[in-house]
Amino acid sequence: MFIDYVRLHITGGAGGNGCCSFRKEKYVPLGGPDGGDGGNGGDVFIVATSRLTTLMDLRYHNHWKGTRGVHGKGKNLHGRCGEAIEIAVPCGTLVRDFESGDVLCDLTDDGQRFLAVPGGKGGKGNTRFTTSTQRAPKFAEKGEPGEAKEFLLELKLIAEVGLVGLPNAGKSTLLAAISSAHPKVGDYPFTTLHPNLGMAMLPDHRTLSIADIPGIIEGAAEGKGLGLDFLRHIERTKVLVYLIDLGDPEPAETLATLQSELEQYEVSLADRPHLIVFNKADITENRERYAEELAPDFPNAFLISGATGEGAPELLEALWQTVEKVRSLEAAEAEAEPVIDREYTYESPFEIKRIPSGFRISGERVHRAVSMTDFENDEAVRHLQQVFTKMGLLKALKRMGAKQGQSIYIGDLEMEYEPD
């Protein structure tokens, strides 16, 4: 089964809790704190691999969760970090944010990795909070919960050559003749219901990746037939092959229809290098028609038979030469592209909004501090207040006119404002 859309729900591994512990040793009455830190939660990566050609595996396993970091222990023993998890996807997978639809990453190369969700930070043990005025802190941080995100994965096959034609033009038969692929072949339209990818072997250890795209009909760019479902798989091809059945009564109109549908879907496809190929030359009437009617109008076209393999070697060699020219142009353009300096922008540590019942505070640093605080421990709560003071949060609330006892909301937490 060919699956090219998958929705993923990914949660990063939670950080391990810090340890609140004190050193105990014979004849040492004041040993001091020795609680170790918790380990960081495991990251979750999406990794491209050439071993896969479909997202089918993820259709039945679309919830992923990173491994949790180990809790800290006494004697300053730090917890082990959670192991990273890798989600394998085919090369050519677009990673989008599910809610906004923004493209976050385009995984085109084998081994390319995208950090989907980082693991949560491990909590600090009580040893970390020792100061000159607080020699024996009796609290430790909790591990940060792993962040949860939703992604939409969209697969666009990566092939150097794309076979384009009307239903039953012989695309699957040709792909089977020139590569090791075994697509379904039938004598009825729309036999091919999903793209097929094959690897053609040429002399001198050369290879070409070729995609057989399901039949395109007039109106495909508007969603008719199988159009919109698979037209996107043509976007990445370097060269197109317009395959036309020699039995077609109006081959020129067929070619114009195919080119028009591709251009309506993606304007850049109109300028894509292409070859025109007439198929089914094994039929005597077709061969005679080509010699008498079509050859003068299409002087650069190729005559082949997907069923017998006639003309296939010459076609592959021409495709190789065309693909090589495109590769050279792409390499030259890549070298000529200017290097863009990275831009740095300041991000405020928090944002305060006035609401009817008080104030709502948002910000990554603020949410992290709250999520890692043990609110059942009074010392931990006082430490959180110190963190807010250093951050400038309490002064900002005061400037906005916060009154004692007003409600302050941070995520799901509700607190009361207490001025300094």
Characterization of this structure:
It is a single chain. This protein folds into three domains: 5-155, GTP1/OBG domain (Spo0b-associated Gtp-binding Protein, Chain: A); 161-334, Rossmann fold (3-Layer(aba) Sandwich); 351-416, GTP-binding protein OBG, C-terminal domain (GMP Synthetase, Chain A, domain 3, 2-Layer Sandwich). It has helices at residues 56-59, 171-178, 227-230, 251-265, 284-297, 312-336, 364-371, 378-391, 393-399, and strands at 5-11, 44-49, 63-65, 85-90, 93-97, 103-107, 113-117, 148-155, 161-164, 196-202, 206-212, 239-245, 274-279, 302-303, 351-355, 358-362, 407-410, 413-416. Strand 5 and strand 6 form a beta hairpin. The protein is of the alpha/beta class and 420 residues long. A six-stranded mixed beta sheet has the order 10-11-9-12-13-14, sandwiched between helices. Strands 3-1-8-5-6 form a five-stranded mixed beta sheet. Strands 15-16-17-18 form a four-stranded mixed beta sheet. It is built from nine helices and 18 strands.
